């Protein structure tokens, strides 16, 4: 076809295949886009030239049409890799802790005695006292896709949002959806699948989605505003850890690095299935078990990583901590992806920002330091509990299906270097 400019509908790179955004905007399915040839016009191309070119193209297509094979249509949500529609992943997209702390410090603080927890302690949710028996817990959490499957993305986002309520020792009572969706790039069935995935998790939590708000956005975003309740005297804050406590973590870390591997096409099926299952796992059982034990403090491990959320706990509690690095559970495959350079931007920011608070033993190399700073999505709970009660709590967690729970360190009196990794 002399004189006609053409290009492929998909570009193949070493780590992934990229579909033309033009074809996506036109609603062309992924399967068809892969086999599509695009014909381009110049600024000064005339209508006559376009018509003549069309005739040449049609004749060429007729000549090869006998060899074309019709590709069967898939369902409308398959073939879309959600991580290709976003610049970042999940909780790793959080604004950096340095900027966030500066902004939050400008928010006026309430002097209402019914406000039991606000921004002062960098806790997981706000708590407002209704009466002597009931306080309301309020949290909101949303992010861009961490996995490619829409249903799984919705489920992970829901589990992550509910985690803040469980970290406060509370019980969720209802949620509202928050969504941003690129309607010009993805079919509505994808959003429907995301919400169905979220509903599967809220059903597991025993609550309902009562409404929400959706906007048009260039990237898919999903999350929830969650309302819960707790007895005012049974709140689990991050600000009451005490010297002599031991630290128990309920899920392994590494989700930030592995979801980056998913986006880059480097995570294998085993890594993906195990990580998705961990992120979808509610912290409901761990929270309910903890309510039966004398837990002093709790937080969940999300976007600021193990190091960052532990730092918030010890600063709020005016203590220090020592972590036994060899006891911290890490998802298999995390090191393999890390050594390929698959490090989320949020993980790098955490590593830099919290380093001044940390004392690292020489044998803990940079790979481990990055993993301990890794920006998690829907991570586990971190409990600070008196040592004499720790063994009983750990056994109870295991008996109720919290299989990864492990003692990773202890709380010490306050010192200049607030966290020691040994």
Element layout with pairings:
Elements: E1 6-8, E2 10-12, E3 17-19, H1 21-25, H2 30-34, E4 37-39, H3 47-64, H4 97-104, E5 115-117, E6 126-129, E7 135-143, H5 150-167, E8 171-181, H6 188-205, E9 209-216, E10 221-230, E11 245-249, H7 255-263, H8 269-280, H9 284-290, E12 297-300, H10 305-317, E13 319-323, H11 334-338, H12 345-353, E14 358-360, H13 366-372, E15 381-386, H14 387-399, E16 406-413, E17 419-421
Parallel strand pairs: 8-9, 13-17, 14-17
Antiparallel strand pairs: 1-4, 2-3, 5-6, 6-7, 7-10, 8-10, 11-15, 11-16, 12-15, 13-16
Helix pairs in contact: 5-6, 7-8, 12-13
What does this structure look like?
The chain has about 425 residues and is an alpha+beta fold. The chain folds into 2 domains: about 60 residues, no CATH class; about 350 residues, 60s Ribosomal Protein L30, Chain: A, CATH 3.30.1330. The protein is built from 14 helices and 17 strands. The strands form 4 sheets. A 7-stranded mixed sheet has the order 12-15-11-16-13-17-14, sandwiched between helices. Strand 2 and strand 3 form a beta hairpin. The longest helix has 18 residues. It starts with 5 loop residues before the first strand and ends with a strand. The relative contact order is 0.14. About 0% of the residues have low confidence.
């Amino acid at each position: 076809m002399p004189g006609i400019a053409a290009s492929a509908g998909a570009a193949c790179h070493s780590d992934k295949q990229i579909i033309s955004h033009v074809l996506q905007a036109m609603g062309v399915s992924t399967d068809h886009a892969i086999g599509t040839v695009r014909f381009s016009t110049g600024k000064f191309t005339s209508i006559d030239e376009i018509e003549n070119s069309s005739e040449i193209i049609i004749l060429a297509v007729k000549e090869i049409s006998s060899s074309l094979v019709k590709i069967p249509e898939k369902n409308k949500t398959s073939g879309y890799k959600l991580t290709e529609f976003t610049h970042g992943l999940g909780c790793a997209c959080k604004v950096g802790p340095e900027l966030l702390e500066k902004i939050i410090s400008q928010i006026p603080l309430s002097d209402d005695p019914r406000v039991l927890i606000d921004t002062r302690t960098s806790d997981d949710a706000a708590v407002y006292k209704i009466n002597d028996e009931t306080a309301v817990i309020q949290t909101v959490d949303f992010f861009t896709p961490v996995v490619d499957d829409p249903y799984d993305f919705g489920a992970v986002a829901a589990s992550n949002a509910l985690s803040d309520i469980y970290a406060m020792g509370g019980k969720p009572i209802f949620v509202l959806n928050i969504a941003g969706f690129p309607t010009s790039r993805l079919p509505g069935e994808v959003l429907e699948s995301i919400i169905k995935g979220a509903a599967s998790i809220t059903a597991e939590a025993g609550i309902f989605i009562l409404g929400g708000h959706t906007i048009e956005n260039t990237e898919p975003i999903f999350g929830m505003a969650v309302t819960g309740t707790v007895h005012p005297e049974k709140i689990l804050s991050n600000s009451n850890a005490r010297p002599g406590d031991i630290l128990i973590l309920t899920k392994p870390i590494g989700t930030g690095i592995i979801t980056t591997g998913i986006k880059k096409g480097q995570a294998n099926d085993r890594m993906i299935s195990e990580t998705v299952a961990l992120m979808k796992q509610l912290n409901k059982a761990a929270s309910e078990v903890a309510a039966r034990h004398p837990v002093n403090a709790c937080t969940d491990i999300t976007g600021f990583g193990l190091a960052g959320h532990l730092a918030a706990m010890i600063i709020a509690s005016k203590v220090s901590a020592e972590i036994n690095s060899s006891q911290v559970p890490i998802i298999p495959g995390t090191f393999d992806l890390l050594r390929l350079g698959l490090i989320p931007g949020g993980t790098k920011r955490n590593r830099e920002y919290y380093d001044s608070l940390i004392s690292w033993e020489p044998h803990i190399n940079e790979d481990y330091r990055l993993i301990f700073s890794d920006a998690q999505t829907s991570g586990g709970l971190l409990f600070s509990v008196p040592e004499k009660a720790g063994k009983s709590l750990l056994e109870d967690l295991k008996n109720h299906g919290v299989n990864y729970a492990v003692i990773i360190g202890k709380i010490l009196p306050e010192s200049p270097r607030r966290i020691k990794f040994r």
